[in-house]
Amino acid sequence: MKKILVPVKMVLDSNARPRVRTDETGIDVAGMRMSINPFCEIAVEEALRLKEAGAAEEVVVVSIGPAKAQDTLRQALAMGADRAMLIQTDETVEPLAVAKLLCAVAREEVPDLVILGKQAIDDDCNQTGQMLAALLGWPQATFASAVRFAENRLLVTREIDAGLQTLSLPLPAVVTTDLRLNEPRHCALPNIMKARKKSLTVCVPADYGIDIGRRLKIVAVRPPAGRKPGIRVATASELVSDLRAAGLV
């Protein structure tokens, strides 16, 4: 296996408190802290571990988003990725368009493996990996909790309702990562400095001839309703009476 391609996404930092736009068209991220999607970070870590184990020679990361997404790519480069690519656009790109762009990149880069997070924490679609595998016509393994390379095949363990399932995939293949796959490394300051000198190319969706026009319409995004305060009861019988009065028992 020579090359691993890792798509990553810039999302609102998981520690930030999201706020809804006044026109209810989405989440307002202006001035908010952004970071790499946690599942994508796990995918980068797993690709680097495969490289360090001698199963791959190069790790390439790619992102689709605004110019600020370069910060996300630099983080992946600081972790140890070899080079990066940004498909720059200020538009919101839906999963199908993302999959089409990644398919074009994969046909250009010719990786042996594409490994990406199972979902992004902003929209939780969990679609891109499956769509990408279908477009490429490659075998896929989703929700990976363990990955290893042996005898020119990829062995992927995934959690299912009945326990653990291990798939043996020929290469090239697409794998999506679960939270239990690994614990991503921290970026040391020297590696952050080195990342600034690594290759990061920028292009646009039009370079690949892909239409990223939206096909879905968001009717409204609203914050959840506030929770009503609870009440105290003195006895269990009073609790049962209140539940009966509310029609809950």
Automatic annotation (TrEMBL):
Domain Electron transfer flavoprotein alpha/beta-subunit N-terminal positions: 24-212
Gene3D superfamilies registered for this protein in UniProt: HUPs (3.40.50.620)
MF terms in GO: electron transfer activity
Keyword flag Glycosyltransferase: no
Pfam families: ETF
UniProt cofactor(s): AMP
GO BP terms: carboxylic acid catabolic process
Keyword list, A-Z: Electron transport, Transport
Subunit comment: Heterodimer of an alpha and a beta subunit.
Sequence similarity: Belongs to the ETF beta-subunit/FixA family.
Role: The electron transfer flavoprotein serves as a specific electron acceptor for other dehydrogenases. It transfers the electrons to the main respiratory chain via ETF-ubiquinone oxidoreductase (ETF dehydrogenase).
Name recorded for this polypeptide: Electron transfer flavoprotein subunit beta
